[in-house]
């Protein structure tokens, strides 16, 4: 069913939508409250469907409003209430209140989706007030899944919400929404804990709120642009700071970009837009390497890069700036010298300022000011050598041949016809050979025309003024025609070359920026594109260490493609410096200047590819080092924290037994022996763990991650805890995917965390072990109802030999929280602490889900 019908003659109802970040922010409450306000104003309002979710405050608002009976449908042995579209259409109120816009109707309903039901009501001329959460918008479902780990099954197309006449945000802070949840105002009590520790986390709610605000801001901006277009408003409205920086591809571009970024940063939410203007024929004198680097700089500063086409650069800049509702325009000071500016008139900056209107124009000085002296561009022919040779031949041959033919019949042809015939010959020469052959042909033809056909014949003089004028026009037309032909040919060649260059650069830049192209592949493409024997990327190294860079160092080949790599820039046929220490060297043949300009872009791409390659290598090399550091810290934590307690206990017991000053009875002796035995058992277990971790640190003991079920690991962990483990509540879904972890190591971590939770849990409130899947990760939460830990002290909680209040240093023989975190991170997991809703502490282990789940 289409959202917009074709019959535009019938009045269509208006749609108003309340948009919220999550359930419980008050969308339905706002919808029903608006219904009451409309009723008080005498409007005919009916509730077509309202979902109260058992909330008494929301249900109370239905009283006093007319409710259209719902339709009861059976599906798979259960009955469901759905909106009765036919009943609403028959009742035909002025305004219908329809909740849950993204709802999927039960099979057998009139439409598959509720928004399709709403479309029918609107087509019937009924105004509709509805509500929807941002996570149900089709365009953000993938983002919501990444944030919350929940796949949204019910979605509504963005076009439906964007087409609404009004969209109003129902906003609430994450903290306020969590308080509403904790007070039982959203979900029933049995679902509160699970909701607060899963979907309704503060971070999740904050991210969803930002999504809702940004989506609505885009719609508001879209409405503003539409309004400006409909009312033909071209002046700038400074609703948001937008700074446009004009780039020419010159070396001053970096300075302009950074200056524009600073201007945009002065206002919160300011936008940075970089624009480069090219001619409509696709030709540009800009340095592509500079533009590629400057585009990367703009994007790294959070801006966007644009390219527009226009013959008049200042007009194109202003058109773009006004279309983007820009407030600031940043230009570089002219590179023309004072003499060139005096001879050629106002520059781009001056013309832009005159037409800027309300847009502030900043002219930024730079080191290239006044560096351009040349007045005219150098002439470059566009005709091939073969065509020029053919033109010279025709220039020498056509005029004499035409003279023989025309001179043989002087009676039937007058001077006008002779002139036109010679003009045709000059045009033919111009079309064939270009400007210079046409000039020669025009000179020869004018001399022959004057000598053989202009009275007095066989004389270089011209007796009549009109004959002199005709001869002058003939020469002028010949020269202009030849110049136009030559210019067209040159532009055609340049356009074809520019198109080929841009396509080559576009594909190369795309692969590099997306990280798909390796350095070797880029050099191979460079070698093939320019027809060279080899392409090498050279780097200057410090002669002393061979690692650091120095101006007097030797050159080393970083990467190479082709045969016989060049080892020094001086030995290359073509050398393109990239930086002070990098150079692209090619062997094969010298390249013209045009090819060198494009080669500069490839050199810049090669530098980016090299940086990507090294960053990737460094990241891979840092992984085992980081894992080793985490493991070393964990081992030291265990030694300083858990080793003292059993040694001290055993030492005290043995010392007491050996004391000759006290006569111990049998009961005391047995108790001291039991204490020593228990302490030594704890010490043995700890030393065994430390030895295992030492082997792991040395590489002699490896982790063996494999798909493991959390239910089995948790069950074994609770068995290790003995009778205390039977008091713990476990909530692990049967459909939970397996995790990728070492089961033995994970079991030790769970035992340690559970022991801590038991230690601080009050009587009658045992800890809870709950698990859930969040995207491609699985989380296990150990929840206690103890005193909790202040947020400022949570980092110190993972420091060795730290317990809450330092009141109990005799228990906790496990691995310790420092070691637990180190082992978790060694398995590509995380261990974090957060408040338990209602009081207490929640320790969350996040591990990657096993592949194939």
Could you characterize the architecture of this molecule?
The protein is an alpha/beta fold. It is built from 26 helices and 24 strands. Strands 3-2-6-7-1-8 form a six-stranded parallel sheet, with helices on both faces. Helix 1 (27-40) runs parallel beside helix 2 and helix 20 (593-642) packs antiparallel against helix 22 (666-698). The chain is flat.
Give a quick summary of the entry.
This protein is α/β, with parallel strands linked by helices and 853 residues long. The chain is 48% helix and 16% strand.
Keyphrases for this structure?
853 residues, alpha/beta, five-stranded parallel β-sheet, 48% helix
Helices, by number, come to 26
How many whole angstroms does the radius of gyration measure? Answer: 41 Å
Strand order of the largest sheet: 3-2-6-7-1-8
**Residues in β-strands, percent:** 15-25%
Q: Percentage of helical residues? A: 40-55%
Unreliably modeled segments: 4-8, 370-380, 543-552, 800-815
Residue-averaged pLDDT: 77
Structural class: alpha/beta
Count the beta strands: 24
Please give the alpha-carbon distance between the first and last residues.
36 Å
- What would the principal axes of the Cα set say about the shape? flat
Give the biggest sheet.
6 strands, parallel
